[in-house]
Amino acid sequence: MHDFFFYLFSALTVLTALLVVLCPNAVNSAVFMIVSFVGTAALFLLLDAFFLAILQVLVYAGAVMVLFLFIIMLLDVERSSRVRPDVVTVVAASVAVLLLAFGMGYLFLTGHDATAATMAAVPQVPGGANPMEYATASRAFGYGLFTKYMLPFQVAGFLLLVAMVGVIVLSKRLTGSNEAGKPSAQEIRESEVSQS
Amino acid sequence: MDWIDILLKVVYCVLVVVVTMTIAGYSVMAERKIASWIQGRIGPNRARIPGIADIPVLGTALVKLGIFQLPADGLKFLFKEEPVPAHVKKVYYTIAPCLALVPALVVLVVLPFGVYYIDGQAHPLVLADLDIGILFILAISSLGVYGVVLGAWAGNNKYSFFGGVRSSAQMISYELALGMSILPVFMWANGPTGGLGDLTLFNVVTSQTALWNVIWMPIPAFVYLTALFAETNRLPFDMPETETELVGGFHTEYGGFKFGLYFTGEYAHMVIGSAVFTILFFGGWQFLPTFGFLPEWVANPWASWGWIGSVVSVIFFIVKLYALMVFFIWIRWTLPRFRYDQVMTIGWKYLLPMALACIVFYAIVIGAWDTFMNVQDTPAIINQSAP
């Protein structure tokens, strides 16, 4: 039963991930990407990692992809002209694919007897599973985040803050002499005239 | 798992879905009746089913109340011709209405709606008592937006498209406030009241025995309720529809049963939103809060009644839920619709900062409570065995 579901959802995830790249229509790609995320969430479920699975759906399928669809629909990407990839892109993509294939092949051939990297001991969660790496309760995640993984957690948060500030700076770029970001009344009138 | 277990689960699921859909259906009737009362009309009072409507006093009263309008409307949706306009994107046009309804029904899986007792130990009446109950609800109901967005896009029509774009922007904005406003509730449920350190909704209900959260967390409750109106696309936040500007909004191109699915989907979302609100802020199925001095049995007077007590608790839960539904309807026919920029301002400039401030405030209060009342020895820390 478990194996069957694993193969089912793996196939679904990989297939839809391929379709994301291969679909000419941007909206189709986005929808397949949602399905792919849900498939990944199902794989997490099979690992008993309910918390991760739900976060996958909540953050990626529920929020990020809505924004993707929003932008695709708003900009009407479909009708924009198709760009043929240039030589540099093709070369870079081929190198990346070769590296990926090599890495996966290496893992397949040697991965069976490889021992997992040993990690530093984690403070014991009161009443949690031992060792904590195997705990699935949401409580254990919180405990780990605020003890052993405190620094990476804070750094990730800081990175997100930097990205947010960057977006605000970019979208509020100074235009000429007037107030930041706000077009003057003259400009608005001109744009209305040119539109009509 | 035995096949009889699976069969039982299926029977339970069908039962829960049937009850929810009946409640949703009758909220449509309640909506029409209450709207007409608010506007000084009589409302639907003609539809009749011959056998039942002929009972002398009761039958006439039911007809006057418009009880039989629901089967009439449902059958109308079912048998109506379904026009599929030539210019729509067929695949998405067909899938989208299902995507609007299905998430609402999936959420039912983790929704506790009553309580039963085995050897004095309370257990929730729920299909699956997941550790991550509330996150499951937030995640799955956030998928409901795809029904609206894809349906609007598939309609291939400027008006419905505008509805879809508005809807996606609105949902994203209010989901943040919605998610943040419930954090104080879970801090409380897992802190001083000695929850098990998880996010189950049953835990939240038991933490409200002394005081319902709405009494001492009025601002999170208000933020949650407002965001809920926006998430369910109800007036004053029905930007995706706005029939005065956008013809019918996202469902302009829909007719027949596909429109019916959207319609029921909206009400199913309302029912589930009200249920979650009841659980989070109104003490779920509990009768009255004890306020710390009333005897313990006031919260669950039916604890010792066996299975009858469980049924009464479910009924009491549904009563609370219906009171909230009436509130939803009341607001719809009272307040005018916000302008689009006002919707964005309310979401980002008022609700979100309010929710954040509440998190900080209640974190300090609960932390102080933990420290000064010295609750290190809560069952959460002592008794939790390894999963």
Explain this structure to me?
The complex is a heterodimer of chains A (196) and B (387). Chain A has a domain at 152-196. Chain A is built from seven helices and no strands. Chain A has helices at residues 2-22, 26-46, 50-75, 87-110, 138-146, 150-171, 185-195. Chain A is extended. In chain A, 17% of the residues are buried. Chain B is an all-alpha fold and 387 residues long. Chain B folds into two domains: 45-79, no CATH class; 84-382, no CATH class. Chain B has 17 helices and two strands. In chain B, strands 1-2 form a two-stranded antiparallel ribbon. In chain B, α5 packs parallel to α14. Chain A binds chain B through residues 27, 31, 34, 50-51, 54-55, 57-58, 61-63, 66-67, 69-70, 73-74, 126-130, 135-139, and chain B through 92, 130-132, 135-136, 138-140, 142-143, 145-146, 149-150, 153, 161, 164-165, 168-169, 171-172, 175, 197-199, 381-387.
Kindly report the greatest chain-chain contact and the residue count on each side.
Answer: A-B, 28 and 34 residues
Shape of chain A: extended
* Strand residue percentage of chain B: under 5%
Mean pLDDT reading of chain A: 77
How many DSSP E strands of chain B?
2
**How far apart lie the N and C ends of chain A?**
63 Å
Q: In this structure, how is the largest beta sheet of chain B organized?
A: 2 strands, antiparallel
**How many helices of chain B?**
17
Question: How would you classify the quaternary structure?
Answer: heterodimer
Q: Catalogue the unreliable spans of chain A.
A: none
Quick structural overview:
By secondary structure, chain A is mainly alpha-helical. Chain A has helices at residues 2-22, 26-46, 50-75, 87-110, 138-146, 150-171, 185-195.
List the helices and strands and how they pair.
The complex is a heterodimer of chains A (196) and B (387).
Chain A: H1 2-22, H2 26-46, H3 50-75, H4 87-110, H5 138-146, H6 150-171, H7 185-195
Helix pairs in contact in A: 1-2, 2-3
Chain B: H1 3-38, H2 50-53, H3 56-65, H4 69-79, H5 90-106, E1 115-118, E2 121-124, H6 133-142, H7 145-154, H8 158-181, H9 183-190, H10 201-206, H11 213-216, H12 218-231, H13 243-246, H14 256-281, H15 307-332, H16 340-372, H17 379-382
Antiparallel strand pairs in B: 1-2
